[in-house]
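User: For a teaching handout, I'd like to show students what a predicted protein-ligand complex looks like in token form. I'll give you the sequence and the SMILES for asparagine. Please answer with just the structure.
Assistant: Understood, here is the input followed by the structure.
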Amino acid sequence: QETVTKPNVVILATGGTIAGAGASAANSATYTAAKVGVDQLIAAVPELSKLANVRGEQVMQIASESISNDNLLQLGRRVAELADSKDVDGIVITHGTDTLEETAYFLNLVEKTDKPIIVVGSMRPGTAMSADGMLNLYNAVAVAGSKDARGKGVLVTMNDEIQSGRDVSKTMNIKTEAFKSPWGALGMVVEGKSYWFRLPAKRHTMDSEFDIKNITSLPNVGIAYSYGNVDDTAYKAFAQAGAKAIIHVGTGNGSVSSRVVPTLQDLRKDGIQIIRSSHVNNGGFVLRNAEQPDDKNDWVVAHDLNPQKARILAMVALTKTQDSKELQRMFWEY
Ligand SMILES: NC(=O)C[C@H](N)C(=O)O
């Protein structure tokens, strides 16, 4: 009989709905997140042992809306330690879906490894009818253990799709078809096998200039949302609270209300970086000097990064530079 050596995959559990529990099987939306421990998650999918030698670690147990910068750093450091270990072939992180796109992008920027790192969650708790967590986890372990997932950056397996952690975003809060990228999925995972269609073009992991091992803390970056009749209250409050950068969530092209422009010009003169993004639903595409004179104002554009991803890159970038031109380069390259 042929002996196949199975890959070693570590599952780092952080909480979320994938570890959630409801009162009845009919509770697909009403439940408590972050209840079930990692050993129980693994035990619920016995088929994992056919894919890989799996072991679990409970890194934290929280709903992802409560993830802090310190949590991100803690998780990032543990991922780096495991990635450095010779007996680890791939890492899966179970995570709440609310900020999953932020954590996935953060790890994509700061982990210096080509080993697969997969972030996964679920839209329904494991106690619900048609719970999606088991299959999402099975797919995550399958991709984490596969050689062809190496070097593709941090990935997300939700709803049978393999998404780039850089691009993917939660676009819906109740359907299992929730995670989408404006530029499409990278591939599919079906019955434990991956099928690839495209590769990420942006810098990540091995090719990134950022390294979790050199990051001791992350700066305060705020996000201020635009709408009709907006004023500068939020921007001033973030500045007062010590923000080093403010992500402007503009309308359309990342446009800025005439009531807000002078404040943003002043804040920039005070040393705060102003980064223009957009709140359009299907992904923004903000270009320099379109609608606002960024060269003159010394502002930065987030290009296609949504506001919450722009915050992640701004925090990581500001650990290396305070120069707005360098910051803009990073926003084009990552
Ligand atoms: N579906 C989920 O995981 C939502 C939950 N609030 C969380 O992010 O932890």
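For the handout, you might add this sentence: Residues 16-17, 33, 63-65, 96-98, 121, 123 surround asparagine (CB under 6 Å).
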